[in-house]
């Protein structure tokens, strides 16, 4: 109940949007866009270290290009999606994509070298704005060293934004760590309700922009005569089955083993053995493995699936339409912990969340975590709506019965579908719909988290 109280499942979190829109309409002082106009271009140094961050970063880049009145140029680190928006990454994003504490140790030296390279590149680029997306281990070190670099040279630092507030609410002592961030982070973009309020109470400027997952539902649902909480992403089941020659009557299970190599190598064998157990109950069984756009992950999965126990289809990442088409053709999903649990909720596809890590990392999580769940839908609702198989419970003999129950039992399936509406209501405050109706200048495509973040960047006023 502690977490439920913290998020206040009511309309209190909506006030941030009203303040934000009023800020757009009347913004005093010298904004970032004014500084860019003086130089004839806006230079943005942007860094993402995960596939989810690559998606967030690419959408932010597109919004900045769309709304900035001068040419926008980017430098930094990102993946394939950010490269399509014009980023020539300093090095492959996978070089800094490491999850966990003990898992980082073998990569520590390379991590330091890439950090040094990134700081130097950022300084040479002379950006007006620096944006880091999630990956707080790398991001905060980068921002801290870059701010110190400018200070030592007696230069005015660019504005620092961090997109996705650290999950302070999940860890003991997490809120206290926010106080020191204000020294090198000018503003945080929060994706969950009430994060803005807590950040500001700890001296860290913040703006609630909404969860990035909302980007997937704004466009396909704009203009529909339904409330946002009823929005969903509809895939084309028949087209997907037809194009991939999936026989009628085949039970399709979507498998999402993660986006980082170390988690995929840990989770995929567990998923394979789970499929081995299930094929006894489902003779016509097929698995669709969603492959993250990570070159190391792609190579690993391609090499191991030739031993897969049931027919398998590899689905390349990076295409929301293809992903949601596969979801619509699936009966259930089995996924590693991450943003994908929310994506499955938007598609109304029931799922099981699984998670394993190095035993020392698992011990640290048990010791430091102050919440009962690991998947965001369960955290937001303070209820085990989505079954979780964590740590030593994450075994094929545990997962197979959970999936069978989800396939055959309508009760848990319907419970997850109903929960999806509650989650969207939390992540997309109803006041945004009211603003759309009241202000003719606003349109659905403009009410996305990336647009709100881009507008905040362009109109940000330095107080120092």
TrEMBL record:
GO annotations of cellular component type: membrane
GO molecular function, one term: lipid-A-disaccharide synthase activity
E.C. designation(s): 2.4.1.182
Keyword set, alphabetical order: Glycosyltransferase, Lipid A biosynthesis, Lipid biosynthesis, Lipid metabolism, Transferase
This protein's record includes keyword Iron: no
Highest taxon of source: Eukaryota
Reactions this protein catalyses: a lipid X + a UDP-2-N,3-O-bis[(3R)-3-hydroxyacyl]-alpha-D-glucosamine = a lipid A disaccharide + UDP + H(+)
GO biological process: lipid A biosynthetic process
InterPro entries membership: Glyco_trans_19 (IPR003835)
Name of the protein in question: lipid-A-disaccharide synthase
């Amino acid at each position: 109940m502690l977490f439920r109280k913290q998020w206040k499942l009511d309309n209190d979190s909506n006030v941030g949007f009203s303040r934000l829109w009023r800020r757009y309409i009347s913004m005093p002082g010298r904004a970032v866009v004014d500084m860019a106009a003086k130089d004839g271009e806006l230079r943005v140094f942007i860094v993402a270290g995960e596939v989810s961050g690559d998606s967030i970063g690419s959408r932010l880049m597109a919004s900045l290009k769309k709304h900035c009145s001068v040419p926008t140029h980017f430098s930094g680190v990102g993946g394939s999606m950010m490269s399509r928006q014009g980023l020539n990454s300093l090095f492959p994003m996978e070089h800094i994509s490491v999850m966990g504490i003990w898992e980082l140790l073998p990569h520590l030296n390379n991590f330091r070298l890439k950090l040094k390279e990134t700081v130097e590149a950022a300084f040479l680029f002379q950006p007006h704005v620096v944006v880091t997306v999630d990956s707080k281990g790398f991001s905060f070190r980068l921002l801290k060293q870059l701010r110190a670099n400018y200070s030592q040279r007696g230069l005015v630092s660019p504005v620092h934004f961090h997109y996705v507030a650290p999950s302070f609410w999940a860890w003991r002592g997490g809120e206290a760590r926010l106080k020191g961030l204000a020294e090198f982070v000018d503003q945080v973009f929060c994706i969950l309700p009430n994060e803005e309020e807590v950040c500001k109470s700890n001296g860290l400027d913040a703006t609630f922009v909404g969860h990035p997952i909302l980007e997937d539902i704004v466009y396909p649902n704009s203009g529909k005569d339904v409330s946002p909480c009823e929005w969903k992403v509809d895939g084309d089941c028949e087209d997907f089955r037809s194009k991939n020659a999936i026989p009628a009557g085949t039970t399709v299970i979507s498998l999402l083993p993660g986006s980082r190599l170390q988690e995929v190598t840990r989770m995929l064998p567990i998923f394979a053995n789970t499929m081995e157990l299930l094929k006894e109950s489902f003779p016509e069984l097929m698995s669709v493995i969603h492959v993250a756009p990570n070159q190391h992950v792609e190579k690993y999965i391609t090499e191991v699936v030739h031993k897969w126990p049931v027919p398998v289809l590899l689905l390349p990442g990076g295409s929301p339409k293809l992903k949601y088409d596969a979801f619509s053709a699936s009966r259930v999903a089995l996924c590693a912990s991450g943003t994908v649990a929310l994506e499955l909720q938007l598609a109304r596809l029931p799922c099981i969340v699984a998670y394993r890590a190095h035993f020392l990392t698992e011990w640290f999580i048990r010791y430091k975590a102050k919440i009962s769940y690991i998947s965001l839908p369960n955290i937001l609702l303070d209820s085990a709506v989505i079954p979780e198989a964590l740590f030593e419970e994450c075994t094929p003999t545990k997962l197979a019965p959970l999936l069978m129950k989800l396939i055959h039992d309508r009760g848990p399936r319907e419970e997850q579908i109903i929960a999806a509406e509650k989650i969207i209501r939390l992540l997309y405050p109803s006041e945004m719909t009211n603003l759309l109706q009241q202000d003719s200048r606003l349109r659905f495509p403009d009410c996305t988290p990336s647009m709100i973040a881009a507008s905040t960047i362009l109109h940000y006023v330095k107080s120092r």
